[in-house]
Design brief:
The chain is of the alpha+beta class. Helix content is about 35%, strand content about 15%.
């Protein structure tokens, strides 16, 4: 049985089982989760993509809300 996501450290143990579109929205200036780590995540999920937000750090929802909103809308409507 899978633990709740709030109790998980990461999702690498189930990543290859998730055969659905996955968007990894990364802040290009993020000092908590680097673009290299975002790329590692992308490789773990069969149908993932990374999109970097150029002026964001770890909180793109605060730093670039419109760009993040556009990114999410594009992802949802492209599938």
């Amino acid at each position: 049985m899978l633990r709740g996501m709030a109790q998980r450290v990461d999702a690498y143990d189930i990543a290859e089982e998730l055969n659905m579109p996955v968007l990894i929205a990364a802040g290009a200036a993020d000092q908590v989760v680097s673009l290299a780590e975002a790329e590692k995540m992308r490789r773990a999920f069969p149908a993932a993509q990374v999109r970097a937000l150029g002026r964001s750090g770890h909180l793109p929802m605060l730093e670039e809300p419109e760009a993040l909103s556009d990114l999410l809308c594009d992802f949802v409507t492209s599938g």
